[in-house]
Amino acid sequence: MRTKMADLDSPLKLSGVQPPSEGVGGGGCSEISAELIRSLTELQELEAVYERLCGEEKVVERELDALLEQQNSIESKMVTLHRMGTASIRPFRELMTSWT
């Protein structure tokens, strides 16, 4: 089966599924299937697919950066909450140990 350049523009023809949604948590892999890549024979077609994959890689890197930023923020908040919890429990501990 030979793939034509027009097929590269259609997500349904590329893998039979809709493209992943954009933005953080799009949760999907490339719409370009391994079978499609193996079926390409023309250099121009391979270059077009390569360019698309490079574009998808940039989107994934941006999403990863956003997720790492969120993770750092959550971890920082957890540390702060832990410190607040420890500080608020200390007076009760001291009170409880003084009664025994």
Largest sheet: none
Q: Quote the beta fraction.
A: under 5%
What is the approximate shape? rod-shaped
Class from secondary-structure proportions: mainly alpha
Span between termini: 83 Å
CA-atom Rg in angstroms: 26 Å
Low-confidence stretches: 10-20
Q: What percentage of residues falls in helices of 4 or more residues?
A: 55-70%
Total E-strand runs: 0
Mean pLDDT across every amino acid position: 76
Protein name: Component of oligomeric golgi complex 4
Keywords: Coiled coil
Organism: Rhinopithecus bieti (Black snub-nosed monkey)
Question: What's this, in brief?
Answer:
This protein has 100 residues and is mostly helical. The chain is built from three helices and no strands. Helix content is 68%, strand content 0%.
Q: Can you walk through the features of this model?
A:
Helix content is about 70%, strand content about 0%. It is rod-shaped, with a radius of gyration of 26 Å. The N and C termini lie far apart (about 85 Å). The longest helix has about 55 residues, at about 45-100. The chain is mostly helical and about 100 residues long. It contains three helices and no strands. The protein has one domain. It has helices at about 10-15, 35-40, 45-100. It comes from Rhinopithecus bieti (Black snub-nosed monkey). This is Component of oligomeric golgi complex 4. Keywords: Coiled coil.
